[in-house]
Amino acid sequence: MAAMRIAFAVALVVLTAAPVLAAGMDAASIASAEPSKKGLSREKPTPAGVRLQVLLDRAHFSPGEIDGKFGENARKALRAFAEARQLPSSDEMTDDVWKALQADGRPLTTTYTVTDRDVAGPFLHKLPSKMEAMKDIPHLGYTSPREELAEKFHMSEQLLTTLNPGRHFDRAGETITVVDTSGQDAPAKADRVEIDKARQSVKLYDKSNALIGFYPASVGSEEKPSPSGTLKVTEIDPNPIYRYNPAYHFKGVRSRRPFTIRPGPNNPVGTMWINLSADGYGIHGTPSPQNISKAQSHGCVRLTNWDAERVAASVAKGTPVVFTDGGSSTASR
């Protein structure tokens, strides 16, 4: 059973300060923003940063959590998008890349009416910091409607709040502004998955060896590195159960007995587990999307929940998964 193999997946938590959001962040400013050097910032969110991240996300070149910053995940996605379009790759926006991204001319934001289901819960008032404390919780759900809505639209909670001053996310019928991350096309089927341990990323390739998807990831650690070589997908398990095995001696976990953590988006492996052919390894989601590529994993490959779900939709049992230490793995197919 896949749940029994979810062994190396728990995060090493990294605490991050809440970002300072830019003034003038609204639907109009996002729609008109141009991603010039002045319009993008690695330190603070900008309307241009939001616009760029939304367009990359729609194209299946994920920047991770959409927060408006031109951080490392956004830059990695930009480089991968340029590579896929056979354009010069750079950390800086070029006219050709921007033209290709703008081929999707739909509005960047949309309105959404909060539903009864969105606010129904049950919600966890506080997510336990220790894994042992999670074992008796019947469902590892969201901590608030705001967290649920932010994840639904691939956004940071801070950006969602800034776009909706004075709005109440816990009230059914409330109309809010969100970014529109709906893709025009469903994720294409992948012929192989490539996991770059050095660059902390997951790439999907089709039968013609074309790059069709990119996702920033947290891949292993010095303490428990990810495997090398080629594995295969053996099982795809949505809403997985997490089973802790004390034989792995995870840092911060004192229990000497196995225990089970029930499903939910705040489960240690999130909403999706893609089991691989090496015992205990998989590709999975996370309860902390803001930490992707910024915190290490215990050997597995961690994505945002929504990216893990998109990868799962593109692969099948038997899909090769190639681990590399940087660069292309085409020759090892």
Number of strands: 13
**How are the strands of the biggest sheet laid out side by side?**
5-4-3-13-7-10-11-12-6
Overall pLDDT: 87
3D shape = globular
Radius of gyration: 19 Å
Strand content is 15-25%
Measured between the Cα atoms of the first and last residue, the distance is 28 Å
Give the oligomer, counting copies of the same chain as homo and different chains as hetero: single chain
Please trace the helix and strand order, writing H or E for each element. Answer: HHHHHEHHHEEEEEEEEEEEHE
Structural class: alpha+beta
Helix content: 10-25%
Unreliable spans are 1-22, 329-333
Main sheet properties: 9 strands, mixed
Number of helices: 9
Structure, described:
By secondary structure, this protein is α+β, with helices and mostly antiparallel strands. It has helices at residues 2-5, 27-32, 47-58, 72-84, 95-101, 116-120, 145-152, 157-163, 305-314; strands at 109-113, 175-179, 192-196, 201-205, 211-216, 218-219, 229-238, 242-244, 259-261, 272-276, 282-284, 301-302, 320-324. The strands form three sheets. It has a nine-stranded mixed β-sheet with strand order 5-4-3-13-7-10-11-12-6, sandwiched between helices. It has a two-stranded antiparallel sheet with strand order 1-2. Strands 8-9 form a two-stranded antiparallel ribbon. α7 crosses α8 (157-163). The two termini are 28 Å apart.
